[in-house]
Amino acid sequence: MRYISTRGQAPVLTFEEAMLSGLARDGGLYVPETIPHMSAAHIRALHGLSYEDTAFRVMRPFVGDGFTDEVFADLIAKAYAGFGHNARAPLVQLAPGHFLLELFHGPTLAFKDFAMQLIGQLFQEALERRGERVTIVGATSGDTGSAAIEAFKGLDNVDVFILFPHGRVSEVQRRQMTTPTEANVHALALDGDFDDCQARLKDMFNDFAFRDGVRLAGVNSINWARVLAQVVYYFSSAVSLGAPDRTVSFTVPTGNFGDIFAGYIAKRMGLPIDRLVVATNQNDILHRCLSSGDYRTSQVHPSISPSMDIQVSSNFERALFDAYSRDGAAVAQLMGELKAGGFSVSQGAMQALREHFDSGRVSEEETLDTILLAQTTMGELLCPHSAVGVRVAEKQRKADTPMITLATAHPAKFPDAVEKASGLRPPLPKRMADLYERPERVTRVANDLAALESLITERLPK
Ligand SMILES: *Cc1c(COP(=O)(O)O)cnc(C)c1O
């Protein structure tokens, strides 16, 4: 399997190379050259398998020869062993025809653990075999950073630096990033918002002298291996509701478009999915784009679902690449226009997007209402992100197709919002109950590329 850039100008890479490099050198994102197909018989054969066995069968065709079957299966087993639920991604019923996919049983209580725990294992194996060392720099709206630190802390061949927007993450998120004691972990609080963090990260990748000097690697959702790991739970949940002999739809609380793009890949692989519904909070660039065809950035308005406070949805570029019939030059042109504020999606491309995607936007008040409603009528205490999803799903689902809404974080990760909505303060699971007592370690940094690059260089082991 070979990987190509969405902007058409970067070298073609293997899975392992694409995973280790993150962003393509032409500024684009890596995607597989072709999407492997899973037949109905193949999908039917997933019935009753463990999450790990499903993961192996779904991901194997994308991975190529870099990892043997045995090694790959072993890394999958290690990745999910630390989850607090044997099903890994259990499906619970909210209402007739509406199901919730609980993706928050990993070590940092958000769905990002599904990808990050696996990526940690894959990186370690690949780097050890190559005798190489990399510097991982990640930008986070809160959950990616904690998941990355949890996955990479203490590994021999990796230093991990996480940029998060100062004062704009929840206390649990911050503590998950600032309390690990391993020397290879560096939490950096940047004076700016998430888009600033993401922009500085992209600048570092485009500064080739720095990028090559520190052997920069990225684990943001632009990393193809992360998208791939997330494809698995679309299969496991759809199969448990009867796929391939029953079609389902998904609603996904969305920020960077990584999670829902994984659903699109599952559909392209042959999983019978009717609609993929994007659910956004008040930062609604995706909803506006899918409604009007106009992708235009505006200011980020901090919300009670902070992991979706994003105005530039990086992975949307991958969807555009397909919608523009894989024309890298056309995508490069759009991304150039984005630097000046935005672009209009062509009619043909909009039609292609609408074949798969719907969207909805949820206000702060509706989010709080939904947390209360779900707690009193569905028996489920939702985190604010998951509530955004449930709200949109309840509005858009059709009677004849089961809807699966992705619950992207545990309510205890956002206790203030949940308490405000429901009067209940969700406790942390026992395995992390002492989080509030551990000492914190964090460096405050300016929103300045040169300063960041020199700080990172100084911190690396000599
Ligand atoms: C990251 C995150 C999202 C958004 O996921 P994307 O892949 O960026 O669309 C939603 N909810 C939670 C809790 C998250 O951590």
UniProtKB/TrEMBL annotation:
<keyword id="KW-0663">Pyridoxal phosphate</keyword>
<comment type="pathway">
    <text>Amino-acid biosynthesis; L-threonine biosynthesis; L-threonine from L-aspartate: step 5/5.</text>
</comment>
<feature type="domain" description="Tryptophan synthase beta chain-like PALP">
    <location>
        <begin position="99"/>
        <end position="332"/>
    </location>
</feature>
<dbReference type="InterPro" id="IPR004450">
    <property type="entry name" value="Thr_synthase-like"/>
</dbReference>
<dbReference type="InterPro" id="IPR037158">
    <property type="entry name" value="Thr_synth_N_sf"/>
</dbReference>
<dbReference type="InterPro" id="IPR000634">
    <property type="entry name" value="Ser/Thr_deHydtase_PyrdxlP-BS"/>
</dbReference>
<keyword id="KW-0791">Threonine biosynthesis</keyword>
<feature type="modified residue" description="N6-(pyridoxal phosphate)lysine">
    <location>
        <position position="112"/>
    </location>
</feature>
<comment type="similarity">
    <text>Belongs to the threonine synthase family.</text>
</comment>
<dbReference type="InterPro" id="IPR051166">
    <property type="entry name" value="Threonine_Synthase"/>
</dbReference>
<dbReference type="Pfam" id="PF00291">
    <property type="entry name" value="PALP"/>
</dbReference>
<dbReference type="GO" id="GO:0004795">
    <property type="term" value="F:threonine synthase activity"/>
</dbReference>
<dbReference type="Pfam" id="PF14821">
    <property type="entry name" value="Thr_synth_N"/>
</dbReference>
<keyword id="KW-0028">Amino-acid biosynthesis</keyword>
<dbReference type="InterPro" id="IPR036052">
    <property type="entry name" value="TrpB-like_PALP_sf"/>
</dbReference>
<dbReference type="GO" id="GO:0009088">
    <property type="term" value="P:threonine biosynthetic process"/>
</dbReference>
<dbReference type="InterPro" id="IPR029144">
    <property type="entry name" value="Thr_synth_N"/>
</dbReference>
<dbReference type="InterPro" id="IPR001926">
    <property type="entry name" value="TrpB-like_PALP"/>
</dbReference>
<feature type="domain" description="Threonine synthase N-terminal">
    <location>
        <begin position="2"/>
        <end position="80"/>
    </location>
</feature>
<protein>
    <recommendedName>
        <fullName>Threonine synthase</fullName>
        <ecNumber>4.2.3.1</ecNumber>
    </recommendedName>
</protein>
<keyword id="KW-0456">Lyase</keyword>
<dbReference type="Pfam" id="PF24857">
    <property type="entry name" value="THR4_C"/>
</dbReference>
<dbReference type="GO" id="GO:0030170">
    <property type="term" value="F:pyridoxal phosphate binding"/>
</dbReference>
